Amino acid sequence: MGAIFLSASVPTRAPYDADCRPQEIQAAINALALVVLGRKKLVWGGHPAITPLLWSAAQAVGVECTEAVELFQSRLFEKVLPAENKHFAHVTMVDAVGTDQEASLLAMRKAMLASTTFEAAVFIGGMHGILDEHKLFTQYWPDAVCIPIAQTGGATAQLADQLQFKPPEDLAPLDFVALLYRGLGIRPSQKRKTHLDQRGNHGTSSGVL
């Protein structure tokens, strides 16, 4: 088993903000936390809008589950990191490439995607970075499952169209929980553990939430 990669943001610039759906983005983040935390390792690049949402969702599942996530940040943004970062046990800071934002983001993304074995990626909302991360993710992990939740709008809707990704017909359009359980191969009855090893598998901790 491998880890789950999250690529997400709240679109704030054209053309991606035209169909920005913040309620659906929050619902998708909540669903991802419910399905994944404590069952598979979750890895994402910190975003000032997404990290607070994920922390709030993690609290609903169980704070201890923050041991089973890894957050990556570029040092370029060290002065403007979300306050919620301090709640997560594993935050990896990647050195910036001078003051070059694009190069620094690429360095962070490469470090993130090479940090462990990934079996799937979930895409939510976002702007062009969603498309960049999908392209890079598939270069590193071509056989991994990709789940773009089109209902969250932004670049993810465009990505879903490109991939011709459609949820199973027997699921309601906004049933993100069922979509992720099925797409990620996780059972609702699967127990949660407070520690996952660096490969994304269940660790030896016996604590069940």
Task: Please characterize this protein's 3D structure.
- This protein has 209 residues and is an alpha/beta fold.
- The chain has one domain (12-188).
- It contains six helices and six strands.
- The protein has helices spanning 22-36, 50-61, 101-113, 128-140, 154-163, 176-184, and strands at 3-9, 42-45, 69-74, 91-94, 118-125, 145-149.
- It has a six-stranded parallel β-sheet with strand order 4-3-2-1-5-6, with helices on both faces.
- Helix 1 (22-36) packs across helix 2 (50-61) and helix 1 crosses helix 6.
- The protein is globular.
- The chain starts with a strand and ends in a 25-residue tail after the last helix.
- 43% of the residues are buried.
- Residues 198-209 have low confidence and may be disordered.
| Proportion of residues in β-strands | 15-25%
The sequence of SSEs as H and E is EHEHEEHEHEHH
Q: What is the first-to-last residue Cα distance?
A: 20 Å
- Gyration radius (Cα, Å) is 16 Å
Query: Counting H and I runs of at least 4 residues, what is the number of helices?
Result: 6
Seen as an oligomer or otherwise, the chain set is single chain
Could you tell me the number of beta strands? 6
Mean pLDDT, rounded to whole units? 89
User: Regions with pLDDT < 50 over 5+ consecutive residues?
Assistant: 198-209
> What summary fits the major beta sheet?
6 strands, parallel
Helical proportion, percent range:
25-40%
Please state the structural category: alpha/beta
Shape: globular
Q: What is the domain tally?
A: 1
The strand order across the widest sheet is 4-3-2-1-5-6
